[in-house]
Amino acid sequence: MELFFLHIIQQFTQVGEQDKAIYRERFQVKHYKKGELFLREGQVCKYIGITESGLMRHYINQNGQERTYYFAQEHRFLCNYESFISQTPSSTNVQALEDTIVHVVSMEDLEYFYANTESGNRIGRLVLGKVLIKLEKDLASFYTDTPEQRYQKFIDEYPGLEQRISQYHIASFVGVKPPSLSRIRKRMLKNP
What is the mean pLDDT of each run of 10 residues along the chain (192 residues)? Predict the structure, then answer.
């Protein structure tokens, strides 16, 4: 456990021994079975997590349709930041697509990191920056890219994930129905 989350955190900045001790004390490990929810729509998001193994998806329900907008495979952060930061009910669901191990930290512990570690604020700013950049790119893609371009971005951004995720979830992520995704795949195979 320790090596995993410290390895991820240290990708952002150097972490001193005193900070490491605080992180060891405050991070928790949670296990989710396939189909289990990390977060349910209407609940307040209690944790930011880092996926050690397995796979989660973020989705919203829109008029009875599930719209997937993010996959959190190994070494990716997961959270509904709007709900977590404001401590208000989430409009998002986060579901395990496989048995998943997640290292989590609560808002209280995150605030403790910021107040009591040298590295906490820097890590928080850098992670938030990455999240905002990803959000802006995804939003722009949704409005400007064709479904074929969004599918290619899925392939590029999530290498190897296509074998782990149902066509239904990939189609939802791309913004099309499964039969349309099949046609996109066929066209892309003909014209690589």
Answer: 72 85 88 98 95 96 92 93 95 97 93 88 84 86 91 92 94 94 89 70
Return the pLDDT at 25.
87
Burial of 58 (0-12, 13-18, 19+ CB in 10 A): buried
Query: Letter for the amino acid at 44?
Result: V
- What are phi and psi for residue 104, nearest 5 degrees? -125, 155
Beta bridge partners of 50: 77, 103
Give domain limits for the chain: 2-144, 145-192
Q: Read off the amino acid at residue 183.
A: R
Centre a 10 Å sphere on the Cβ of residue 137 and count the other Cβ atoms it contains: 12
Burial of 148 (0-12, 13-18, 19+ CB in 10 A): middle
The pair of structure tokens assigned to 114 is: 């910021």
Q: Identify the CATH number of the domain defined by range 2-144.
A: 2.60.120.10
Residue at 130: amino acid letter: K
β-pairing verdict for 37-39 and 100-106: unpaired
CA-based nearest residue to 27, from 45, 55, 3, 58: 3
Position 95 scores a pLDDT of 98
Residue 150's pLDDT is what? 93
